[in-house]
Amino acid sequence: MRGKSSEFLQFPKGRLGKTLEMKFKIIHDQRHPKKDNTCPLKLRIYEGSGYKESSLNIFLLDGEWDADTQTVLKTCRGHKNYNSKLVQVKSDLEKKILFNIDPTPPAKPKAKYSIIDYGRKLSKEFELVGKTGNCIVYNTAVEMLLRYTNQKNILFEEIDYAFLNNFQNDLLKRDVGVNTISIYLRTIRAIFNKAINEELTENYPFKKFKIKQQTTPSRSLTLDEIKKIASYKCSGDRELNRDLFLLSYCLIGINFSDLLTLTTANLVDGRITFSRSKTHKVYSIFLHPQAASLIEKWHTKTYYLLPIMSKEYKGMVLKKKLQQAIHVCNNYMKKIAKDLEIQKDVSTYFARYSWANICRNLGYSKDLIAEALGHQYGNRVTGIYLDSYDTEMIDAANCAVIKAVFGG
């Protein structure tokens, strides 16, 4: 007899005339959609209080399956072929029961995968396509997991809500910043999402786990503080790193990784033109005389405009050298701030935020500042307007921001 969304089959079994009753139904398993948003049809056969499932290799969109009639709807292009296949599946089940063949052979135990091995695999893939930043982030998150578990290789199934909570608390005890922990946990969550998409695991411990984040404190200097740094008397490496900070400020807070990898090819018609490594957005910044003098002061006629990186550095080596250079600059800027009695944890980020803050104090609009920094606009109409006039307006704003500090 037929149920609303399942079927019962009864057939004689052997000479004693005993019957075997089997209940089954076909389900549209929508737990883990594929990239094209289709989900598999699965044959579910009930055995006592449990059941076994097997994929039918039919993938449908939401709305293409009728669970009541157990048929593929006409909205699906291949509905005729799919429905014919389902009829055959039911016929095969009948034959297996008639000849006393178990219709559900023992399922092979699912392989269990290591999040450590999989995370390293993803990291390597990022490295191969030149995404060294992602490569480092994934590697670091994996190493944090290993450190927490005393170098134990962890399976996806071993990580649950309690594990994540204890992992987070362990990092907090070691004085790791809340936002740094957030990066690790978001990376681990991304690893889980990729593994689920590849059907390596069905475990998802982040369903109820909330990743904590803190509001980033202001990383802006006042106009007077920037002036103090600009007039600070120093020499050697301290002077070099102070000038790198000021050059970043003069180039609208250019990211340090981009600043340190500028070459003569980036100098085009009196402008610095480059593609930001993080977002790949193209920038074109007027080379103000103050910025030009800082570059000329330190340029050594090598491959790069500034004497920090070497042409021989490639890929991961270059990324690590850039991180090291930024770390060194941050240390010098903290020493300079201490000398000048500036009560702030000054770093390279302060050049970008200070430019925006001073530009705002000079009366320029938030939309123009957003355009200069490469941010998205909150106002679509204003965005269209700035697309037409951004170069001239931003050049004027940058000149005003530089003049406020250096005069002239």
Describe this structure in words.
With 408 residues, this protein is an alpha+beta fold. It has 13 helices and 9 strands. The strands form 3 sheets. It has a 4-stranded antiparallel β-sheet with strand order 1-2-3-4, covered by helices on one side. A hairpin with a 2-residue loop joins β3 and β4. The longest helix has 27 residues, at 380-406. The chain is elongated, with a radius of gyration of 31 Å. The model is unreliable at 1-5, 8-20 and 377-389 (pLDDT under 50).
Question: Which labels suit this protein?
Answer:
408 residues; alpha+beta; four-stranded antiparallel sheet; three-stranded antiparallel sheet; 13 helices; 48% helix; 13% strand; elongated; disordered N terminus
**Overall pLDDT metric:** 85
The portion of residues forming beta strands comes to 5-15%
Tally of alpha and pi helices: 13
- Structural class, by secondary structure, is alpha+beta
Distance between the termini: 93 Å
How would you sum up the global shape?
elongated
Using only C-alpha atoms, the radius of gyration works out to: 31 Å
User: Low-confidence stretches at least 5 residues in length (pLDDT < 50)?
Assistant: 1-5, 8-20, 377-389
Sequence of strands across the biggest β-sheet: 1-2-3-4
Oligomer: single chain
SSE layout and pairings?
Elements: E1 7-13, E2 18-28, E3 39-47, E4 50-60, E5 65-66, E6 71-72, H1 79-98, H2 115-128, H3 132-148, H4 161-173, H5 178-197, H6 223-230, H7 236-250, H8 256-260, E7 267-268, E8 271-275, E9 282-286, H9 289-298, H10 315-339, H11 349-361, H12 366-373, H13 380-406
